[in-house]
Design goal:
Bound molecules: adenosine-5'-diphosphate, magnesium ion
Largest sheet: 5 strands, parallel
Radius of gyration: 15 Å
CATH topology: Rossmann fold
Structural class: alpha/beta
Number of strands: 5
Number of helices: 7
Order of helices and strands: EHEHHEHEHHEH
Strand order of the largest sheet: 2-3-1-4-5
């Protein structure tokens, strides 16, 4: 059976965009752990954190990761999924893990150019570029640790998809 493909990386690296295109190219199902979490709890991330704290949110995130894991599935993970070691190990053991890597200023630019509705306020009220810088400094080694392959996310989504397929020796479904 085809093992699942997990996409990891900070917000804005293209997990949703690339994940949907990759799933189409391979004839796989696409899943997003954040969407699964919100659907299964009928609450937003902010609501879960307010009611259960970050620990509660992280525990539910781990449940979502396990729930969406299935053969022939491309799984876009929440940006903080790699923070917990059991999540990193679970992904590596159950599938192929791809890190979509891009520098913080590119991630910030992409997030700032999203439509208002898709933008989330920064956690600290500081400029988003500064926040992304801190996040990458804190997490880059975790993404690197968890990933089987690091892919340059500063190419067009089609090129990113091609590179992932090459690195996994997978061919297009049609
Ligand atoms: P994530 O799911 O990792 O947070 P998204 O797929 O939602 O990232 O992408 C964030 C923003 O960046 C979107 O506006 C998307 O259109 C844009 N984007 C994603 N991948 C690329 C890319 N390879 N090149 C240029 N823009 C991209
Ligand atoms: Mg996304």
């Amino acid at each position: 059976m085809s093992r699942p493909i997990y996409l990891i990386g900070a917000r804005g690296c293209g997990k949703t965009t690339v994940g949907e295109a990759l799933a189409r190219a391979l004839g796989y199902t696409f899943c997003d752990t954040d969407h699964h979490l919100q659907r299964s709890t009928q609450r937003s991330v902010a609501q879960i954190v307010a009611e259960e704290g970050w620990d509660g949110f992280r525990a539910r995130e781990t449940e979502s990761l396990r729930a969406v894991t299935a053969p022939a599935t491309v799984i876009a993970t929440g940006g903080g999924m790699v923070l917990a070691e059991p999540n990193r190990r679970f992904m590596r053991e159950h599938g192929q893990v791809i890190w979509l890597s891009a520098p913080s200023h590119i991630l910030a630019q992409r997030l700032e150019s999203q439509p208002e509705a898709a933008q989330r306020p920064t956690l600290t009220g500081r400029p988003i570029a500064e926040e992304m810088d801190d996040i990458l400094r804190e997490r880059a080694h975790l993404y690197r640790d968890a990933a089987h392959h690091e892919i340059n996310a500063m190419q067009t989504p089609d090129c990113v998809v091609d590179q992932i397929m090459q690195s996994l020796s997978l061919a297009r479904a049609s």
